[in-house]
Amino acid sequence: MTGKDMAKTACLALEDKKAVDIKVIDIEKVSTLADYFIIASGTNRNQVQALAENVEEMLEKAGYRPKQIEGYQNANWILMDYGDLVIHIFDEENRLFYDLERIWRDGTSVSVASLED
């Protein structure tokens, strides 16, 4: 499974649990951290945790285990590191505060639909 395939699976998992404003950023050309960042929001702590759990479960079924997961207990920003894919799941307030879309604007925004190709 490529980074793109992992991103597609993660987006499906996020959509399944009604994530808000899913953004995929291709950072392969601007960073060695990963190929893709996914940024999404949940409306409350329980939803943020449910989003992370569903992503982890679906990627595990596809054969991928996270290198690290941070922030699950507080659930205001959960970071899930899968090597080629890094997923950021925020509550709405912290997403606005950290504004990762602005920080990583040198990356290429990728539509979720284009991951299907």
Automatic annotation (TrEMBL):
Subcellular location: Cytoplasm
InterPro entries assigned to the protein according to its UniProt record, in alphabetical order: Iojap/RsfS/C7orf30, NT_sf
Superkingdom: Bacteria
Keywords: Cytoplasm, Repressor, Translation regulation
Pfam hit, one: RsfS
PANTHER family the record matches: IOJAP SUPERFAMILY ORTHOLOG, MITOCHONDRIAL ASSEMBLY OF RIBOSOMAL LARGE SUBUNIT PROTEIN 1
NCBIfam families: rsfS_iojap_ybeB (TIGR00090)
Subunit structure: Interacts with ribosomal protein uL14 (rplN).
Protein family (similarity comment): Belongs to the Iojap/RsfS family.
Function: Functions as a ribosomal silencing factor. Interacts with ribosomal protein uL14 (rplN), blocking formation of intersubunit bridge B8. Prevents association of the 30S and 50S ribosomal subunits and the formation of functional ribosomes, thus repressing translation.
Name of the protein described by the UniProt record: Ribosomal silencing factor RsfS
Organism: Ruminococcus gauvreauii
